[in-house]
From TrEMBL, chain B:
Sequence ranges assigned to domain Cyclic nucleotide-binding in this UniProt record: 13-109
Domain of life: Archaea
Annotated organism of origin: Geoglobus ahangari
GO molecular function: [protein-PII] uridylyltransferase activity
Organism phylogeny: Archaea, Methanobacteriati, Methanobacteriota, Archaeoglobi, Archaeoglobales
Keywords for this protein: CBS domain
Annotated protein name in UniProt: Putative signal-transduction protein containing cAMP-binding and CBS domains
CDD domains on file: CAP_ED, NT_GlnE_GlnD_like
Keyword Lipid biosynthesis: no
Start and end residues of each CBS domain: 148-204, 210-266
Length: 200, 582
């Protein structure tokens, strides 16, 4: 099982207006996080909303000197390879990435992605605990799995936190006998807990 | 920045790495999770990786079992040298490890000597090397301005030599900085003065004889660089400046004093041998106590300090007993012995008196009480438990009989007395009495009592649990949990083997035929480390409770290692004396 944990920072959440300003990709082979192969880049947007500076901790100077998405799109594709994309609320990251690729004239569709919030719901079903919405935030999951929340709002740090959570989640599932992606998929469809927010 | 990097650069030994070296290491890093019960490495297999435990617990199974927890590393040698791993590593609970590529690890070790020495030190468990390094470094790297103790004495170039020499005499300095319009232009030293006198020109001006090419040092420059400057230029004085401003003058003696931190205490020792005034003695002892604090803060360790300080305490005893003997008309025909840390020559910060007397013909009780009182007065407090010559004075035959009784009836009270008196060391008087008693002790000692003593010595374990050091946040009593277990167990072996030495480190050395070379080294290193730690703590606090936040990161790593060594040693003691079958 080859995964790529992705975390994308954007100028906002509006898919039509907003743009990607930072991409972090952290490959995983099975349960192994390949820290040495981590990839991160800032991306220069066409227009930059100053109001989000504080939130991201990214200054206009950094972004002015950053490459455009098209300039790094090849690298990003290489890093993702044909790995299954993993993240928290990963569908949004996926949509933004597809849009940015599209703007560069590259038609890319990521067929498979896995949301750690969804994985958490699967674990909830198995262990008979139904997590509420609040219990599925990145902060709550990190707390639950004892993953320290450090340097939040940097794409790389968030990706690492997500990878650590995913690592522990997967081990739990393996202990339960779910040790392949297809096993997880069939489990999810059987339970019918997939919803529009947890795109597969 | 990626979180593992942030974590690693704060912890020993990764904190020794440059940003670039750390990046190289992380460039080949992976994070892997192991399920409870999973074997990480099998014994005899080679491993490509060095493992760092991020969370969880790992059991290393070899002849002995060792548990590793958060923050510990394993398989370093194996991964770096490509040799088979000498144990089986199993995850005892779900465990997350950072995996470093062994080849990259090796490269970083080759480029960074501090990083390499850390691993060599732990592989060989020679902690002192690591610590000594930092001490010397601290001494030699401190800024030279710290050696300047007063404003410089100056004169002008047209100052007459005779006047200049008068100023030097009055201010008792060996040199004057020659200043023209506020700027230092030269230095006039003792040597220059001799030149003026030799050419009978003491009415001449300083400018004719001064050394004009000033050798200066910037105030922030490290001491050792200033030293090198003086050696290279062949001068005995160095002018310290801060930009254009004159800060002071240091002499080669000031620099050497950094290398000779004991000078002051040695002076006191000489004076102590001549004084016959108890008040003066009391003042000297107070100075010694202050000086010990200074020395500790300069990084002087237990090994050197205890040797020196015990000589001073011994001298104080000798002097007090000598002087009072004269007053009371008492002859030298008794042996005054000290017990406790003084008996073992392990005293640094004065502890209570622990002493006794072995006599042939009765020594007056008033005299002994007076010695105890006087020692108390000069600064060594009376023993609360009453182990003092005024209570413990017996004839040699009586002492022999008592030891026999203690050995033959190993009830708790007698075991306690053995623990106290088996560390006795002759201080003053007729040493033959002491030697005779020790000979007798070795004759009458018996295995049953020694086994009970071994049992006592292993009953308190170091606070090391499966999660590392227990209760480190509440403070750890290093004396109770680290030093005493070593002292007490080593005493048992020493008596068993008929070793007359009382000092714990010397006893350990003499016990190599029992302990083996490796254990001797490990114990000595751990013992000295714990004593150093306690010393540093006691320089500012009077208890033995060491708290986590007063420990440097490296100290914490070594402390855990030292406790492991002690715990392992206690296992050896138990097996050797069959303690568990008692």
């Amino acid at each position: 099982m080859r995964f790529a944990v992705v975390d994308v920072e954007t100028t906002g959440l509006d898919l039509r207006k907003d743009e990607v300003i930072s991409v972090a990709i952290l490959p995983m082979d099975g349960l192994k996080i390949l820290v040495g192969s981590a990839y991160h880049t800032f991306v220069r947007p066409k227009s930059f909303r100053v109001s989000s500076i504080k939130y991201h901790g990214i200054t206009p100077e950094i972004l002015e000197n950053a490459p455009s998405f098209c300039e790094v799109s090849e690298e990003i594709m290489e890093k993702i390879d044909d790995r299954v994309l993993v993240g928290h609320g990963v569908s949004i990251d996926v949509e933004f990435l597809q849009k940015e690729f599209g703007k560069c004239g590259k038609k890319v569709r990521f067929e498979k992605s896995l949301d750690i919030a969804l994985v958490e719901r699967v674990i909830g079903e198995i262990f008979g605990e139904r997590p509420s919405r609040e219990e599925l935030t990145l902060e709550s999951l990190a707390r639950k799995y004892n993953v320290p929340l450090v340097y939040r709002h940097s794409a790389m740090a968030d990706a690492y936190i997500e990878a650590q959570i995913f690592q522990i989640q997967m081990m739990r599932l393996m202990k339960y006998g779910i040790n392949s992606l297809s096993a997880l998929e069939s489990f999810i469809s059987r339970l019918g807990i997939s919803d529009s927010h947890f795109i597969f | 920045m990626i979180p593992p990097k942030e974590l690693l650069r704060k912890i020993v030994p990764f904190s020794y790495l440059t940003g670039d070296e750390l990046d190289r290491l992380i460039g080949g890093m992976e994070v892997e999770i192991f399920e409870e019960g999973e074997t990480i490495i099998k014994k005899g297999k080679k491993t490509k990786y060095v493992y760092f435990i991020y969370s969880g617990r790992v059991l290393l199974k070899n002849d002995v079992e060792e548990r590793l927890t958060k923050g510990e590393l394993f398989a370093v040698t194996s991964a770096v040298e490509g040799t088979p791993f000498n144990a089986t590593a199993v995850a005892e609970e779900d465990t997350i490890c950072y995996l470093f590529d062994g080849r990259v690890f090796r490269e970083v070790m080759e480029s960074n000597s501090k990083f390499r020495i850390f691993f060599e030190t732990f592989a060989e468990r020679r902690f002192r090397e690591l610590r000594f390094d930092t001490q010397v470094e601290e001494l030699l790297l401190k800024p030279v301005i710290e050696l300047v103790h007063r404003r410089p004495i100056t004169c002008t170039p047209d100052c007459v030599v005779k006047e200049a020499s008068r100023t030097m005499l009055e201010k008792s300095v060996g040199s004057l900085v020659v200043v023209n319009a506020g700027r230092p232009v030269g230095i006039f030293t003792d040597t220059d003065l001799k030149k003026a006198v030799a050419s009978e020109r003491i009415d001449g001006e300083v400018r004719e004889f001064m050394t004009p090419n000033l050798i200066t040092s910037e105030s922030r420059e490290p001491v050792f660089e200033a030293y090198i400057k003086m050696i290279e230029a062949g001068v005995n004085h160095l002018v310290i400046v801060n930009g254009d401003a004159l800060e002071g003058v240091i002499s080669i003696k000031d620099v050497l004093s950094v290398f000779e931190p004991f000078a002051k205490v040695i002076r006191i020792y000489r004076r102590l041998r001549r004084t016959d005034d108890f008040t003066e003695m009391r003042d000297m002892m107070a100075t010694v106590r202050d000086e010990v604090r200074v020395l500790v803060s300069k990084g002087v360790g237990f090994h050197d300090l205890s040797r020196m300080i015990n000589a001073i305490y011994d001298q104080t005893y000798v002097r007090v007993i000598e002087l009072l003997s004269k007053e009371y008309g008492v002859h030298r025909d008794f042996s005054w012995v000290n017990m406790g840390s003084s008996g073992r020559k392990e005293q640094v910060i004065a502890t209570d008196q622990d002493n006794a007397v072995i006599f042939e013909t009765e020594v007056p009780q008033e005299f002994l009480a007076e010695v105890n009182e006087t020692m108390d007065y000069v600064g060594i407090p009376k023993c609360v438990a009453g182990y003092m010559a005024s209570n413990w004075h017996h004839s040699i035959d009586e002492w022999k009989r008592m030891f026999e009784e203690w050995f033959n009836e190993p009830v708790p009270k007698n075991l306690r007395l053995l623990t106290v008196f088996l560390d006795m060391r002759h201080i003053y008087g007729d040493k033959r009495l002491y030697d005779e008693l020790i000979d007798h002790i070795f004759e009458v000692k018996n295995m049953q009592a020694l086994r009970f003593l071994a049992y006592d010595a292993t009953s308190l374990e170091p606070p090391i649990g499966i999660f590392g050091i227990k209760d480190i946040d509440k403070g750890i009593d290093v004396k109770k949990h680290g030093i005493y277990p070593i002292v007490n167990a080593v005493r048992v072996f020493a008596v068993d083997e008929g070793i007359r030495e009382t000092n714990t480190l010397s006893r350990i050395s003499e016990l190599e035929h029992v302990f083996g070379e490796r254990r001797v080294e490990e114990l000595k290193e751990s013992f000295e480390f714990l004593q150093d730690l306690r010393l540093k703590h006691q320089a500012h606090k009077s208890d033995n409770l060491i708290n986590q936040n007063e420990l440097e990161k490296l100290d914490l790593v070594i402390l855990r290692e030292a406790f492991k060594i002690i715990k392992n040693f206690q296992g050896f003691v138990r097996r050797y004396y069959g303690v568990d079958r008692l």
